[in-house]
Each structure stands twice: as C-alpha cells, then as structure tokens.
C-alpha cells in the first residue's frame, strides 16, 4: 500500500477509535438521557464529531503551516481541561436529575394527599449545541493529540488536509454509531418508564463526576 494511502486509512481508523474513548462516551451519555428517539440520540454523536473536527481543523492548519508541535505538557493540560468539563457536566446532570420531579398536595373528597409530577425544566442549551461544544473541548485530548502529532510529520499541506478530513469523518461516524447504540436503550427506557429518566441522569452524572475527578487526579499526580 502506498505510504500516503496508508496514512489516510490510519487517520480514518484513528478517528473512529477516538470516538469510542471512555471520556467521550461518558460525556455524551449525559446528554443522551434527554433524547426521545434513537435518531436524535445518534445526532448528538454527530454534532460531537462535528465540533471535534472543527477544533482539529483549526489547530491542524496551524500545525501544517507553522509546523507547530503538540508537547506532552500541552497534551496533559488539555486532558486536565477535559476532566474539569466532565466534573461540571456530572454535577449539572445530578442536580437536574434530583429536581426533575416534585410533589403537589391535592384534595379529593375531603382527603388530602400528594402526587409526584415531572418538573418541566427550561433547556438553556439545546442538546446538539451542547454536544457540539463538548466535541470542541475534546478535540485535542487523547487520540486527537496523537492525530496532530502524526500531522506534524506530513510534509505536504494538501495531504495534511486530507488527513484531517478522513480523521474527522472517522470520528463523526464513530460517535454517531456509539451514540445510537448507547442511546437506544436510554430512549426505550424513558419512553416505556418516564420516571426512569431521573435515575438515568443521576447515574450518568455520577459516572461523569467520578471519571472527571479520576482524570484530574491522574494529571496532577502522574503527569
């Protein structure tokens, strides 16, 4: 196989692999709980991939034109930022999950009792917009940094742009598939048992919070 073709194939596979990294799946799972269809869940992953590719494209242009290299220190700093993001998303989802239901007193035939009702929340940020922003933040972490490292060894700017494109396509495809697979049981569960959304949110938020803390500790003490 021609070296340039091999590089492009490697970029595509690296993009797909990048989408399935643990912190990406955890971050996106915090958004999937609010989706009402498998298609919308898949689109969450698609927008993550678009945001991710946007960051890679912008920084990749600088790498290609100015021959900038991504150092280990910069990579560690970016991973630290991802940890902070996961902690924030986790706390946000836990809080939202805890306030999704509230009780109201009712009186029927002279007898007072309470009913639990879903709490209608105003969505300050659309799920796809949120996923896009998360993808942007994730753009340089993990295999994204490795992608830029490979990019810095490519002498032809045109080939480098092709590499960015196939990496981006791979990451978009990979995250779309993973979001569809992960989101489908979420969608089924929420549609079948509406009250379960609260527990899905709290569980996803707790996992995100704990994994974010793990990343932060790992970067502080083992970098």
Count up the helices. 8
Overall mean pLDDT: 78
β-sheet strand percentage: 5-15%
H/E element string? HHHHEEHHHH
Helical residue percent band:
over 70%
Describe this structure in words.
The protein is mainly α. Helix content is 75%, strand content 7%. The protein is built from eight helices and two strands. Strand 1 and strand 2 (111-118) form a beta hairpin. Helix 1 runs parallel beside helix 7, helix 2 packs antiparallel against helix 5 (127-138) and helix 2 packs across helix 7. The relative contact order is 0.26. The model is unreliable at 120-124 (pLDDT under 50).
Short account of what is shown:
The protein has 223 residues and is mainly α. The chain has eight helices and two strands. It has one domain (3-221).
Secondary structure: elements and pairs:
Layout: H1 3-19, H2 22-32, H3 38-66, H4 72-98, E1 101-108, E2 111-118, H5 127-138, H6 143-151, H7 157-192, H8 196-221
Antiparallel strand pairs: 1-2
Descriptors:
single chain; 223 residues; mainly alpha; two-stranded antiparallel ribbon; 2 strands
């Amino acid at each position: 196989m021609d070296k340039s073709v091999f590089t492009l194939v490697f970029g595509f596979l690296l993009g797909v692999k990048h989408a399935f990294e643990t912190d990406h799946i955890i971050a996106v799972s915090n958004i999937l709980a609010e989706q009402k269809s498998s298609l919308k869940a898949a689109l969450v992953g698609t927008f993550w991939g678009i945001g991710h590719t946007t960051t890679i494209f912008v920084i990749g242009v600088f790498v290609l034109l100015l021959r900038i290299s991504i150092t280990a220190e910069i990579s560690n700093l970016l991973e630290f930022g991802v940890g902070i993001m996961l902690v924030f998303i986790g706390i946000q989802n836990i809080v939202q999950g805890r306030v999704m239901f509230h009780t109201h007193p009712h009186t029927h035939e002279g007898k007072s009792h309470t009913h639990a009702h879903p709490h209608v929340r105003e969505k300050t940020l659309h799920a796809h917009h949120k996923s896009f922003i998360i993808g942007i933040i994730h753009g340089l972490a993990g295999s994204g940094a490795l992608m830029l490292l490979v990019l810095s060894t490519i002498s032809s700017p045109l080939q480098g742009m092709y590499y960015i494109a196939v990496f981006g396509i791979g990451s978009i495809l990979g995250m779309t598939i993973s979001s569809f697979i992960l989101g489908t049981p979420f969608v089924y569960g929420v549609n079948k048992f509406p009250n379960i959304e609260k527990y899905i949110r709290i569980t996803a938020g707790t996992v995100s919070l704990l994994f974010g803390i793990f990343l932060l500790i790992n970067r502080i003490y083992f970098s």
